[in-house]
Amino acid sequence: MLRVEIEMFSGRPNPVWMLTDADAVQKLLRLAAASPKGVSKPGAGFDGLGLREVRIERFADDEAALRGVPKAFAVGSPFAGDPKAARELAKAFIETMPKRSDVKLLQHELTPLSSKLHDLALERLDRLFRDPPRPPQPPPKPPSNPLRTTIPDEKCGQCQYEVSQYNPGFWNNPATQPYNNCYNYARNWRTNTFAQPGRAHGAQTSTMACGTVTTAAMADGLKKRCDCLSEKEWPRRLMALVIDPGWDYHWYRHQRGGFWGHKPGSTAARNTDNSGVLIVNPETCNRGGYTDFCGYFYAGKSVVIN
Question: Disordered: where is this region (predicted)?
Answer without folding.
Answer: 129-151
